[in-house]
Amino acid sequence: MDDDLQRKLRPLRDRIDALDAQILDLLSQRARAAQEVGEAKHAAHADGPVLRPEREAEVIRRLQQLNPGPFPAAGVASVWTEIISACRGLERGMTVAYLGPQGSFSEQAALEHFGHAVQKLPCVSFDEVFRAVEAGQADVGMVPVENSTEGAVNRSLDLLLNTPLRILGERSLVIRHCLMSQSGNMDGIKTISAHPQALAQCQGWLTRNYPDLERVAAASNSEAARVAAADPTIAAIAGEVAAPAWNLQVVSAGIQDDPHNRTRFLAIGNIEPLVSGKDKTSLILAVPNRAGAVYEMLAPLAANGVSMTRFESRPARTGEWEYYFYVDVLGHRNDPNVALALDTLRAQVAYLKVLGSYPAP
Asked: Annotated catalytic, 309?
């Protein structure tokens, strides 16, 4: 680098250093203010949940609206998620349960949603995630509920039906699958292991490239990576973060059949978020098995101007061809039009469960 360029860059770098120092000082002031909030709550014997999803959503949305640029709006969300997480951790630590082991997409979604200043509790199954939160071993959990390629994650839907937990928020994650092995090549590989959803999302690519290799289902993609790390004859399909986590080498990246593959995750816990101004409400409904029942079920939503964004059915397992319907609508359960629609629904459906109202992304 020539001397003239160095002279031009030096004052710019000095300015960046000075700005960084100012930012750090302001972050410390914010952290002290957060501590004072905790102290005030404790003094007033008003110790509630350390997590306030609606407040955190309001903070980030307000800052994105105030943002003059060129700092990107997505960067505002990412940076302030971590700032809020760090300040929240000063008030009280928070434990997050998710499908593990380390390096899973569920872990990635949990950290993107709650920030990295949390205690992590990897679980061996979706059932264990729910159980850990219900038993108080974790404050919140993160579970996948829907994939853009393969549809609903049925086990999560079934667990939502019977849990007392509430949905606190959601996170959509771009899913980029990678084939990985100990050596970084496929020499000596006899089987390819992954979660069944990942195998399905990559089946076209696998059939074209490795049609003769056995495909073995694992409890999670990161579990497949863990097993591959101990067995040179196994290759795993997992997210990129799983490779360094388990000392594996990527053979091929981006092997999912749909380049726009995404998975929607739900944050669950015992908190009921308040109105944030831009919310979503998730429901489970069931109706009598008769003509026109589903149409009648949806009519109160339309009549009250409530927009439906998702409609999924699951067998009720009664042997009578009955179904539960999983429905997402825009708005908070306390919004007047949503509340009126829910009151009408309760009077006419066979079953209604409000899974939660939470800030919409």
From this structure: no
